[in-house]
Structure formats: structure tokens, C-alpha cells
Amino acid sequence: MSQIYTTFYHKKKWGQNFLKDPNVINKIIACLEPDINDEILEIGPGDGALTDKLYPKVSKLHVVEIDPHLIAQLKTRDYPNVRIHAANILTWDLGILTNNVKIIGNLPYYISSPILFRLLETNKWSRMTLMFQKEVAHRIVSKPNSKSYGRLSVMCQVYCDVKSIFTVSKHVFKPKPNVDSSVLVFLPKKMNLPNINQFSEFIKQAFSKRRKKLKNNLPELYNRGILKEWGDNRPEEITPNQYVKIYLLI
User: Fold this and answer.
1) Cis omega (within 30 of 0) for bond into 175
2) The CATH number of domain 12-188, selected from 2.60.40.2890, 3.40.50.150, 3.90.180.10, 1.20.1440.130
3) Which of 142, 131, 113 is nearest to 240 (CA)?
4) Which residues contact 242 (CB under 8 A, 6 or more apart)?
5) For the ranges 49-53, 108-112, 187-191, 198-202, which has the lowest average pLDDT?
6) Are 100 and 37 spatial neighbours (Cβ–Cβ below 8 Å)?
7) Strand pairing category for 18-19 and 173-174
């Protein structure tokens, strides 16, 4: 069973909600498919609920935590193969990691999208198991012609095979958040894909005004004749594969 700590502490500014159900913890770890030879990155270990269960199953575990109080708590544990990094995951040097690292974490709502975009930019990982608030998870896996389909959907689905695995009730967290969460598994696509930074800017411009037609959001491309097949569609009507096709015509 995951350890439950009698001294409870959290900081709202960092969006901290600590998972306390051992069955859910085990299900999340199982989604990562850890192996004794694996190197793992855990984002925001908090009070160590996942870390306690995960470290005996893998070769090396990096945990990146921003809260000094929690870092001090983690350093009191007997973790022989865990490296604790006192850092913000948005600025931490991902170059420390080896190739094919696996990534796990419960991402705080207020910065979950920036963290995810940063992880997509690196090609080092082989599998990610990440928990998001349910609304964000729904946006990630949304299909075209839905209100929740947008830049985040396109970027994740172009560069990853992503699947929503299960919902996590808000009642298994302390403090209890306002909404439920969802666990997603990401696998990188093994094919030649556009430069992610340039493609991201292209998608950002395409979705700059959702209710406008694509020819209005990308007038230069329309004037060059690149959008003649899609120019009268709105951004949410274009599939991820079609966006790649348009980008490759630029």
C-alpha cells in the first residue's frame, strides 16, 4: 500500500492535489509498463505516492519537484535508484535523460499544456503515462468537428498515438479538486514528421480565429493556392493528417 502521511501539506499556487488511493496508483503504474531495465522520469512526485511503488520496478528514476518542502520530505526516504531534482519541469534540462526514457506524472492543471508541448518537443521518450484534469484530456483526444478539437488535439495526434485509458475520481485526491481526471498513454509515432516547432506555429496560426475559415487565418497560403482544397473549411474541420499534408505543401 502506498504510504499515507499524517502531516498533510500542499500549496495551491502549484496546483497540488495528492493521489491517495493505492488501487488507482497501481493502475497508473501498470499503464507505464515499467521494466527493471527502464529509466523513468516522474513529473511532480509530490509526497511520493507513485515514487514509493515505482522505484523498485525500474533501473533509474528521476523525479522533478518544484516544492522545497516536498523535496526535503522525499530526501528522507530510502530510494537507492532515485535522483531528486529540485526544479521546474518547464525549465529543467531534459538532456540529462537517456533515449527511450518513460515518463509518468499527474500534471497540474494550470501548466499541463505547456508541459505536454515541451515533452512533445523531445524525441527521447518511448512511452508516457500522464494524468490530466478530464477537460484537458478530452481536448487531447478530441476528433475534428467538435468544440474541444483544437491545436492541442492536432499536435498530440500528429506526433503520438494517444489513448484515454481510465477516469480517476476527484474523491481519491487530497485536497479534492473540482473535477475528475483522466489517465492517457502516449506512444511516439515512428515516421518522418514535420519539424515540431515550425509545425506548432503553423497550427497556432490556423486556429488563431476558430470561427473564421482557414483561408482567413492563413491568407498568405491561400493566395499561393495551397489552400484551394481546404480554404473554405473552419480550423476544427481539418483532420491532423490533412494539416500535415497542407504543411508539406508550404
Assistant:
1) yes
2) 3.40.50.150
3) 142
4) 230
5) 108-112
6) no
7) antiparallel
